[in-house]
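RETRY 2/3 - previous attempt timed out on the joint model. Re-submitting the same 502-residue input unchanged.
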Amino acid sequence: MSLVGKTAVVTGGLGGIGAACVEGLAEHGATVVACDVHTDGPAYPDRTVTYAQLDVRDPGAWQRVFAEEPIASSGVDILVNAAGIGGAGALHEVTLEEWNDVIAVNETGVMLGTQRVLESAARHGRGASIVNISSIWGTTATAGFAAYHASKGSVALITRNTAVTYAQAGVRANAVHPGLIDTPMSRGNSEEFNEAIIARTPLARRGTPAEVAACVLFLAGDGASFVTGASLYVDGGFSAL
Amino acid sequence: MPTGRGVGNADGLAGLPSMGGVTGKVAIVTGAARGQGAATARLLVERAAMVVLADVLDADGAELARTLGGHAQYRHLDVADAGDWAALIDHVAQCHGRLDALVNNAGIFRRAPLGEHGEDDFDALYRTNQLGPLLGMRAAFAMLAESRGAIVNIASTAAVRSVAQTVPYAATKWAVRGMTRAAAAEFAAAGVRVNCVIPGLIDTAMAHLNPSDVLDGYVEGIPLRRMGEPREVAYASAFLISDEAAYLTGAELTVDGGDTL
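RETRY 2/3 succeeded.
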């Protein structure tokens, strides 16, 4: 479904899932601002894709990105909150620093981005579609990863809260819950951990970032016009077991 | 209706390499003579699938298939009849040589206090809503395994939150959610994906079985403040059977305007 005429912001735009979302959105004709913490981004071949440095934890950084073009003129139709960091510490030993870092990126970052989109939607007098990347670990528990679980569960509920609160403002919000996806983040897990997840995944393999992006694209676009507050699991059947 | 750019391009998908979508897929849609099923059949035809519309409303179904043209055909199917399913699968094998997708959309609805449902109501709801999808999944599995295809079962938000006067209906729709997960796990090794769509209040003949003041009350409680269009459910089913949904199985896609938040 065409996204021509839409402006999209993707956080974590240099990461596995984020980059696939940038590519997919651009392929469907959206103007895309890919955001990440690095100072510089790649030279995108397509002029409709630009890079902006953004630390999602920083309200000032969000304000700056939204005050620049193309967003300043066009507003934002689609926000994909794909920025995320891992946090493997178990509850009994996670440091407050690690805990706060994970919450700040994975959870507060989503909140700050949502605030900017809500303001943009109000200013430009039209709606928006927010897609938040949660995780199977936003619903299912595994040992350890305390801060990651907390943040991803929170993302699911922030999404539903956004959906119910701002439905009349024309803002839809939906969550995608990826399982084990072939990304730099998951490659950082132990082999043993990843193999254990695959063993519990009916499709018996990792997902690809493009397979997650496909869900984001569906939820972002007009085909999902009656879909809001939904949680879509792209996990090879892991959560069905 | 397809645009001048041709069937399959109605949504501006022309030339996009990643959108293999449903092009060339052979799909059965049950309950396709009207409402949500008809909208699903129509959308799939627009996206260049070959659709076998199945229903018991033969006049409506045949007429719709005629309207949709060469990529659609109508077959009579009582979803609760194993013999009908066998005949349908046989026809698909003979006529098309493959089956890529099954959308178990046929459903009936009853609204009454439990004490005002008779056993015949329980039976009717069970046969169409629960037995129908089971027979369909069983009948279609072998052909779907050959093509590594996909099943979409239509559940309901009555199987998420309680809806007034729908105890037996809710039972059948919870069954659909359960069978979807169990089948997803069982069929995964064969490469057959099974997902469900959870529609909320959709503007069809089924919704209008509710009194209009009741409907108005429901709509007020929906964050998007309107009923869904049948096509909005069709989009969800089409996505779930597409190649792009290759990593989804056992998943549920709720299309309810935020109703079950």
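The beta strands of chain A are 7-11, 31-36, 49-53, 78-81, 128-133, 171-178, 231-234. Closing ticket.
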